[in-house]
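Exam revision sheet. Question 4 asks you to relate a sequence to its structure. Input first:
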Amino acid sequence: MMTPMLITTIALALLAGPLGCFVVWRRMAYFGDGLAHSALLGVAVGLIIGMSNQLGMLLVAVLFAIMLLWLRAQRLLATDTLLGILAHAALSLGVVAMALLGIEDAEVHDYLLGSLDSVTADMLVYVVLGCGISLGLLMRIWPGLLLMTSSEELAHAEGVPIRTYEFLLMLLLGVLVASAIQIVGILLITSLLIIPSSTARLFAKRPETMAIGGSVMAALCMLGGLPFATALDLPLGPAIVTLCVALFLAVLTGRLLVDRFKNSN
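Answer key, structure tokens:
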């Protein structure tokens, strides 16, 4: 089990690095939280329909993104308000649905914080396949997404289909959330996107360097989190995020010391 688990964590890290960059650049952290909150409802939908948890979460994530884009187009409420409404509505419905389905509190706890015991060999195959396809699509639309991030007006002038690319970015985030939920947990999945990429941003000088650095940081924390959680009998998600925070603080300290040394000379 451990070898497939290692392959899966690397696949997740490779996707989390570049996706996390766009979450940081485009200030989409709240959207990531909203998608994560909708995951529990996706699990319930999957159980009701009879599909896998990952497909159920992905289906709800797509509906979440479509609903957000539609409501935002109506220009009735601010985007952060819409996200708050959708996220908490999805989480509440998910908890209620899981309770009505008779799912035990311990299993819901595993979805919230992640658990190695809940990860199956079959799930790992789908995760690796989904991450690989998603990474290929992300690399295909990378130039257009970068141009949109720097200037939507310029991207529109260059013929970039902005709304399509925006939806694809949301879809890719949905794939990552559905793939990593049972490892990192609903409450902490956004941390896997934000913290490694923010750590890489402290030393990266180019977008591609930041994306690669974010993937490396995420891989280090996820690979280190497995033995860390096992040795201390900790929930897997908090163990991984704790390492992410520690690595961020170490790099931040090094960056501040380097800047101070340069300024003193």
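Marking note for examiners. The longest helix spans residues 121-150.
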